[in-house]
Amino acid sequence: MFRNRMPRYDILSEEAMATLDRGWRRLMSEIGVEFMDQRALDLFAAAGQRVEDHTVFLDPDFVLEQVAKAPREFDVQARNPEHSIHIGGDAMAFGAVYGPPFVREGAVRRDATMDDFRNFTRLAQSFAALDSAGGVICEPNDAPLDSRHLDMVYALQTLTDKVYMGNVVSGVNAADTIRMTEILFGSREAIEQTPATISLINCNSPLRWDDRMLEAQFEYSSANQAVVLTPFLLMGAMSPVTVPAALVQQITEALSGIALSQLIRPGSPVVFGSFLSNIDMQSGSPTFGTPESGVGLLCTGQIARHFGLPFRTGGGLTSSQVPDAQAGYEALMTMLPTFLAGANWVMHSAGWLEGGLVAGYEKFIVDVEILQMLQHEFTPLEIDEDSLAFGAHEEVGHGGHFLGAMHTMERFRTCFYRPMLSSSENYERWMRGGGQDTAARAERIWRERLETFEPPPLDDAVREELEEYVVRRRAELGD
Amino acid sequence: MFRNRMPRYDILSEEAMATLDRGWRRLMSEIGVEFMDQRALDLFAAAGQRVEDHTVFLDPDFVLEQVAKAPREFDVQARNPEHSIHIGGDAMAFGAVYGPPFVREGAVRRDATMDDFRNFTRLAQSFAALDSAGGVICEPNDAPLDSRHLDMVYALQTLTDKVYMGNVVSGVNAADTIRMTEILFGSREAIEQTPATISLINCNSPLRWDDRMLEAQFEYSSANQAVVLTPFLLMGAMSPVTVPAALVQQITEALSGIALSQLIRPGSPVVFGSFLSNIDMQSGSPTFGTPESGVGLLCTGQIARHFGLPFRTGGGLTSSQVPDAQAGYEALMTMLPTFLAGANWVMHSAGWLEGGLVAGYEKFIVDVEILQMLQHEFTPLEIDEDSLAFGAHEEVGHGGHFLGAMHTMERFRTCFYRPMLSSSENYERWMRGGGQDTAARAERIWRERLETFEPPPLDDAVREELEEYVVRRRAELGD
Q1: Which of A323, A357, A416 sits opposite B281 (nearest CB)?
Q2: How far is CA A274 from its chain centroid?
Q3: CA A263 from chain center: how many Å?
Q4: For chain A, what is the HEC assignment?
Q5: How far is CA A426 from CA A456, B114, B285, B363, in A?
Q6: Per the CB < 8 Å rule, is B19 touching A299?
Q7: Alpha helix positions (H), B206-271
Q8: Residue B254 falls in which region: left (phi positive, over 0), alpha (psi -120 to 50) or beta
């Protein structure tokens, strides 16, 4: 997996951080946070926090004590140990887009299906730059609602040997995910020792954790599975329009969720989550890849480190409807700050289109190219005498050409990043090849990948047990 | 003009910088630099440097003494004082693309004409994010070769009231630029006191300054006009394939050119130039927006500050043939590091396409949008109690919506960057509007800008004198 050994780009002064600290302490203790689950309220009350109706008025120092119980870094195991990941420190793990109900292939935009889900899962498996297919890589609308989580988890377990995310639609779905993970990894103990899932727990911002998400959180944290506590903030809608206010709210929400996980099971793995952008104030539409979201992202990294927590943010976000110039620059407007901040768990790294409503096949390829480039760019230079190539200058002299120099010949295969998608063909050659733009070339790439896909090997007995589980549970769920 | 008050992203350690320092000192003194102009060789010899044929073997400490004579920061005046710029410190000035022989509008790629030159000049004038139309915004192939510089300078002087770049094709062209600038600003004294042009002096890398460029440099530096001494490095062709080697060569070339300017006229304004990318090792084609160029750019900023010099680098570079996703992400792959490094003079900020062979109308608009976003993003947050919007939380409560909150109502017009080009329309609305991608929307914008363009006012007597000069010189040059 990728380790980001470049410096972090920190933009908050100590004074600014102190102001933010005063802000979340006040918000948490005076406005409080709603938890729509009685078990959560009971845990907080038993720990001495003031609870009124569903609102918990949190003592900031109590919350920091809980936060201190969480691991600063942890592993998440994949069934192929080479694909296990580390969350925290300088490690960065990348998962595909999560949640879109629609897909786009070329000019066609349509409902996502289970076949699409499997295709995107295969694509995620086939690119080394991605550490995970994620979880709900698209919403398979042709599969029965009550049992589709079984099909999705099964696809993630069998078509990839990488880390996957757990289903969070309900406590029941979470329990199914955990049970299937126990089958895949052999036992409950095996996955309690080292988590084998990581799951997204979204806040219903502002300042409310909903019942179904909390049910899932209880299941996962009890089983020592990793959870990503994520405020869902579109400034102007779910938070105030100023970035500092959004940051204060984000801290309040994330830390309150993290504190709950530590009450459920002290030491259980958690991630400080961030999903922070803004709406367009004319139309009310969500917008992505914006300057405000970029700034918020950089601050988020610094804040998470301030609390000693691994963090999730970033991705290849865009509002664009198609994989065009806007999709390219907006995706990078988020992904480059993601690297500057050193985000540890990066969802939506490939395939995000149209504000997250669409999983785009071509956009998936665009994003993988961006990811590959940045992984290359954020690998520190080696600067020593040898790298200065004095001998090449002696060989080439003034006004000469380095293409044939010995120093070049020795390095030409690996000296530069080799693009998968980007074209630098001259105009005549490009026209002879059909004058294909980036989206057209991306289509060729994902189709080739799917045609040549080979699923990773899986023990027959395990596969059978998983299948039996899916069949039995589907029947029990009435689908 | 834009001031970048965000932190710089420095990636070179002190040890790395010391290694680079050893590198350029050795390269400069042992391999030396060629100057294809006898006056340059005489100046270096008279100053005690060893000269053999056209090669000057430079004493690094002597070079640093010359560099110390150059101003750390300086102004370049525009005829509209509001558009005058500062070069150095936290100031960043942006000019349009420079040099393309072709243009692209929509699906059409063709030879550039003088009409295109005027159109791009108008576009540069019409966007506040740009400080200059640059110089050779495209090469007007329908204008006579010997006198087209007169038409270009005249267009830059009359269709914009912003800073412009001087012609560098020859000493004669440079002298014409200076004479026309004297007319526009009233006298030689007026422009010697504060430079009114900034000109690009390219090195014929590796390690050679050609005669025509040097002629132009002599003209401009003698007249106290700003020059940008720019190594032209495509790693693998004009420099070795390792970034550290390219950086060492870049320092050697830039400092040797800067030293010459200081010998011509001590204290004359200079800029440490950088144009640093790499070739594709399969095809030999130049590539842009690459990881290697991004890293080189970040290092260049740190190196220029190390020498106390303002610097030029960056732009909206791309290899893409059309304004598609690749054009979007590659442009930002260069422009975002440009802001992280705090480049002082940024050429190719708008319109660059197809490796610099094409000035693209739609790409121009894409680049201006990127520039506007980054100028917004690199404006520091104000973080104080008021920005935390505690009152908005009291008003909205848990699970509410901030759109109608008082805090939002007071700020909704200015709280977020308002896109000019990017779309966040929902799919149905976007389809009703014709389902236009970014390039199609960009076309609409540049056409509207040209239709509504009003040239900035200019004194009739000055315009007449400029016209007379152009007519007379065109006749003298035989066109």
Answers
A1: A416
A2: 10
A3: 25
A4: CEECCCCCCCCCCHHHHHHHHHHHHHHHHHHCEEECCHHHHHHHHHCCCEEECCEEECCHHHHHHHHHHCCCCEEECCCCHHHCEEEECCEEEEECCCCCCEEEECCEEEECCHHHHHHHHHHHHHCCCCCEEECCCCCCCCCCCCCHHHHHHHHHHHCCCCEEECCCCCHHHHHHHHHHHHHHHCCHHHHHHCCCEEEEEECCCCCEECHHHHHHHHHHHHCCCEEEEECEEEECCCECCCHHHHHHHHHHHHHHHHHHHHHHCCCCCEEEECEEEEECCCCCCEECCCHHHHHHHHHHHHHHHHCCCCEECCCCCCCCCCCEHHHHHHHHHHHHHHHHHCCCEECCCCCEEHHHCEEEHHHHHHHHHHHHHHHHHCCCCCCCHHHHCHHHHHHHCCCCCCCCCHHHHCCCCCCCCCCCCCCCCCHHHHHHCCCCCHHHHHHHHHHHHHHCCCCCCCCHHHHHHHHHHHHHHHHHCCC
A5: 39, 25, 7, 18
A6: no
A7: 211-222, 243-264
A8: alpha
Nearest to B332 among A22, A333, A412 (CB): A333
Neighbours of A108 (CB within 10 A): 8
Distance CA A99, CA A395 (A): 56
What average pLDDT is seen over chain A? 97
Read off the pLDDT of residues A329-386 as tens digits, 9 standing for 90 and up.
Answer: 999 999 999 999 999 999 999 999 999 999 999 999 999 999 999 999 999 999 999 9
Q: Which among B29, B73, B68, B72 has a CA at the least distance from the CA of B52?
A: B29
Cα–Cα dist A131/A128, whole Å: 7
Is B57 in contact with B32 (CB distance < 8 Å)? yes
Closest residue in A to B402 (Cα) is: A237
* Alpha-carbon distance B148 to nearest alpha carbon in chain A (angstroms): 26
Q: Which residue of B has its CA nearest to A394?
A: B31
Write down the pLDDT at residue B474: 97
CA distance B181 to chain A (A): 33
> Residue ranges of the alpha helices (H) in B342-459?
361-377, 390-396, 406-409, 427-432, 438-451
- Are A438 and B16 a contacting pair at CB < 8 A? no
Cis peptide leading into residue B206 (ω within 30°)? yes
Q: Is B373 within 8 Å of A333 when comparing Cβ atoms? A: yes
**Does the distance separating the beta carbons of A321 and B324 come in below 8 Å?**
no
- With a threshold of 0.80, does the pTM exceed it? yes
Determine, for residues A416 and B240 on separate chains, whether the beta-carbon distance falls below 8 Å. no
Tell me the nearest-neighbour CA distance from B463 into chain A, angstroms. 40
Cα nearest neighbour of B439 on chain A: A325
Examine the pLDDT at B479 and tell me if it is beyond 90: no
How far away is chain A from the Cα of B467, in angstroms, using its nearest Cα?
Answer: 38
Q: Distance of alpha carbon B420 from its chain centroid, rounded?
A: 22
- Residue B135's SS3 state is coil
Given a contact cutoff of 8 angstroms between Cβ atoms, the answer to whether A273 and A254 are in contact is: yes
CB contacts < 8 A (A, B): 389
Check CB contact under 8 Å for B10 and A7. Answer: yes
Residues A103-112 have pLDDT tens digits of 999 999 999 9
CA-closest candidate to residue B173, choices B125, B219, B210, B140: B219
What's the CA dihedral at B292, B298, B300, B301 to 10 degrees?
170
CB-CB under 8 Å, A333 with B331: no
Max Cα distance, chain A (Å): 80
Partnered with residue B232 across adjacent β-strands are B275
Quick one: which of A412, A443, A435, A437 has its CA closest to A422? A437
Question: How high is the ipTM of this complex?
Answer: 0.97
Within 8 A of B415 by CB-CB distance, chain A residues are: 235-236, 241-242, 278, 281
Closest CB from A280, A320, A442 relative to B438: A320
